[in-house]
Design brief:
Oligomer: heterodimer
Largest sheet of chain A: 5 strands, mixed, barrel
Low-confidence stretches of chain A: none
Order of helices and strands of chain B: HEEEEHEEEEEE
Mean pLDDT of chain A: 86
Number of strands of chain A: 6
Number of helices of chain A: 4
Structural class of chain A: alpha/beta
Number of strands of chain B: 10
Low-confidence stretches of chain B: none
Structural class of chain B: mainly beta
Radius of gyration of chain A: 22 Å
Strand content of chain B: over 45%
CATH topology of the largest domain in chain A: OB fold (Dihydrolipoamide Acetyltransferase, E2P)
Helix content of chain A: 25-40%
Number of domains of chain A: 2
Strand content of chain A: 25-35%
Mean pLDDT of chain B: 89
Strand order of the largest sheet of chain B: 1-2-3-5-6-7-8-9
Shape of chain B: elongated
Shape of chain A: elongated
Largest sheet of chain B: 8 strands, antiparallel, barrel
Number of helices of chain B: 2
CATH superfamily of chain B: Lipid/polyisoprenoid-binding, YceI-like
Helix content of chain B: 10-25%
């Protein structure tokens, strides 16, 4: 095999490797790792619901699509649609913060009960009748009770 | 534009009505869609869909955040929100409709049509959907599926990605309602 062919094969192999790397980093990448990510904002569920119910556009400009840390009282725990969901109390009984938990948080979630105080980190998606947070994880939640 | 305002007013009226005794609600309705092509299959689910039914008026209102759909790949999520649905400009999809011949007092299962207006990207279309309604002790579960034509909602797909996206999207829904208590 002459030197030209060797270079061509090496070049082709390098391009294939770059292609595979790009595919996995761009196309196949999963969601952001919330557990490792730093929250951009900190608030509590009552205040968050209050802000959204008063001025949705303004609240969206602060919180939408951002990783936020929310402290709140557990209103309800739900396993509907095979999802692990926690509803945190809002400033009224009409609205709450819906936290769609990551599946790796199930062990902590199963130990929780109504009226527990929790701190949750997730991506704020906006407001319908409740504020919606996706990809949520607990922060500093004791699992060894 | 006026049509959209009237529709939003009707949805708001149903959601904020004082008479809640005949209303049932779900905050965690599930809507999923599927795009099947020979190149790839795309599936996404939204598990936080809001829906309220006024049983006495036989009215249903549905609202969902378009950026709350979960995809297997985050690039699909990005394309869906930024290029196709433009969820920053049109964050919500809504449906406002009426059941035809629905009797909430019937226990068990009944199949009924819902006729109403679906609004995506501020474009409204009249649709009729076949639904299965289950009533177990006053708890209602509504399921069904229907198809959406992508071009009806002026969704622009770049020529290079056209083989990847089906022209007709299958949509499934599952709403498990609870009594609406203030």
């Amino acid at each position: 095999m002459n030197k030209k062919n060797k270079i061509a094969i090496l070049l082709f192999a390098s391009l294939c490797l770059i292609g595979v790397c790009l595919y996995y980093t761009i196309i196949e990448r999963g969601d952001i790792d919330i557990l490792e990510a730093t929250a951009e904002m900190h608030t509590n569920s009552e205040l968050l619901v209050d802000l959204y119910s008063k001025d949705e556009d303004k609240a969206n400009s602060h919180y939408k699509n951002k990783i936020i840390e929310v402290t709140g009282i557990v209103k309800e725990i739900s396993f509907l649609n095979n999802r692990n969901t926690i509803l945190l109390k809002g400033n009224t009984t009409k609205s709450s913060v819906i936290c769609d938990m990551q599946l790796n948080q199930t062990a902590i979630l199963r130990k929780l009960k109504k009226d527990d105080v929790v701190k949750i980190k997730g991506v704020c998606k906006g407001y319908l009748k409740d504020v919606i947070l996706l990809n949520c994880t607990f922060i500093n939640q004791n699992t060894n009770e | 534009m006026n049509k959209i305002l009237i529709q939003l007013f009707l949805i708001f009226n149903l959601i904020s009505s004082d008479s809640v005794s005949d209303q049932v609600i779900t905050r965690q309705g599930q809507v999923s869609f599927f795009s099947y092509t020979s190149v790839e299959n795309i599936e996404a689910k939204n598990n936080q869909v809001l829906s309220i039914i006024d049983l006495s008026k036989q009215e249903i209102a549905i609202s969902m955040l378009m950026n709350a759909f979960i995809f297997k790949k985050s690039l699909m999520h990005e394309h869906f929100n930024e290029s196709y649905i433009e969820s920053d400009l049109y964050p919500k999809a809504t449906f406002q409709g009426n059941f035809i011949d629905f009797d909430p007092s019937i226990e068990g299962s009944q199949t009924r049509f819902v006729k109403g207006t679906l609004t995506i990207r501020n474009i409204s279309k009249e649709i009729e959907i076949k639904t299965n309604i289950e009533n177990v002790d006053g708890k209602f579960l509504i399921t069904g599926d229907f198809e959406l034509v992508v071009k009806d909602f002026e969704i622009k797909i770049p020529p290079i990605l056209r083989p990847n996206i089906a022209k007709v999207i299958s949509v499934k829904f599952r709403f498990e309602y609870q009594p609406y208590e203030e």
